[in-house]
Amino acid sequence: MAGIKGNRRILYTKKIIKESLLKLLETREIHQVTVTDICKNADINRGTFYAHYKDAYDLLQSMEDELFSQIVKYISETPAEKYYDSLLLKVLELIKENKDLCKILICRQGDNSLLDKLIFIANKADLEHIYNASDEINKSYSNYYIRYIVGGCIAIIQTWLENDLPESPKEVVKIINSVSILSNTYITNSNTNHLFK
Prior knowledge:
One of its GO terms (molecular function) is DNA binding. The chain has a domain at 81-195: Orthogonal Bundle (Tetracycline Repressor, domain 2), CATH 1.10.357.10. The protein is 72% helix and 0% strand.
C-alpha cells in the first residue's frame, strides 16, 4: 500500500512540476526559465525537482517524449487503412488535451526537432501506404513527399493552435484530409511527371 501512495505522490509531484514549467513558458522562452523559477512556482524544493529532472530543458524534453510515445503507441494500435481518420483524430484529440504543451512545441520552438520527430513517426507509420503513394511516387522522392505532407499537417495544426482550437478535432481531420486530397490531385495532374515512375 505504501508503494501505491508513493507512486501517486511521485505522479502528483511530476504533474505540478510540468504545470509550473508550462505556466512559466507562457511568458518566457525555455532558456529564460531556471530550476529555481520552476520550484518556486510549484512550491517544491530544488531537491524534489532534481530527483526527477536535470534542468528545465530535460523537463521539457521529457514532456515532449511522453507526447510522442503516445503518438507512436496510437500508430502501433491503428490499422494502416484507418490512419486517415481514426489515427489522425486520436492525435488531434491528444494535441487538444495537451494544448499548452503543443502550443510551445509546435508554435513557439524555433528549431526543426519537432519536424524531424514527426517525419520519423510518419516513416514509421508508412505514409506512402496512407496516401496510396507507393505505386505512384518514385521511391527516391518519397522522403520529399513525406516532408511535404507532414509539413502541411504541422502548418494546419499550428494555425489551429494559434487560433486557440476553434474547430473540433473531427473538423480538423476533415480539413487536413480535404487539403491532402486536393494536393494529391494537383500533384497527379501536374506536369511534374519526372516525380513518377
